[in-house]
Amino acid sequence: MKYSYYPGCTLKTKARELERFALDSAEKMGITLEEQNEWQCCGAVYPMGRDEIATKLSSVRSLAEARDKGEKLVTLCSACHHVIKRVNEDMRRKTDIREKVNNYLQLDNYYSGEGEVVHLLEVLRDEIGFEELSRRVEKPLKGRKIGAYYGCLLLRPGGEMNFDDPEDPSIIEDFIEALGGEAVRYPYRTECCGGYLITDNREVTEEMTGNIMRSAEAMGVEEIVTACPLCKYNLEERGRAKDMSVVYFTELMAEALGVG
To answer: Which intervals hold domain Cysteine-rich (predicted)?
Structure first.
């Protein structure tokens, strides 16, 4: 199974090992992730201005390139996934944005949102199947109590992201159990970690991440898994967990598959 792959900035700089875990695991699962040649930063945050065009251009370039190859566009980062998916919805539904973007980019083939961006977790759930993932596991995560942390970007707004139930998601818990671990649910697993507030309001971020980690500890969680590099950073650096590690989903997968 072959996909166009959009890595995003963090996985090419501060978190290169998390990308390597993903690529090695994908290969083990028979998934080919072919990195796009000229991808650019997605902007990290979806632009809320109704007339904002410039910050959407890089997402459209990547979507159009994948469309022209007849491939889905795969991401590993929930922020990249969020931005690109919402921009694609704009190209489908908003005539003024669609016209302005196409006039500016002058693509060989007019782009109207025909492409599709999916998170690697969605590929595993919807196209490979967690049962197949479980069959490929060589080192099950037996006896490990793992809590999923979703945060904001994968789930909301629910109507546009259409990733999972925004109030009671299960995809990461199903992923954990496919790898042989024990998925532990806790109340704050879909609460915001503070996001980019870490840059100018650390006290607020510490309060928010602290609530998440204490909620997980109270339910017996021993380690937290997330799909967002920024969430991972905030929980590790500001969550102040006593005896709890925070890992990226690609780390867990590589470990269980015996490739990392």
So the answer is: 4-85, 148-235
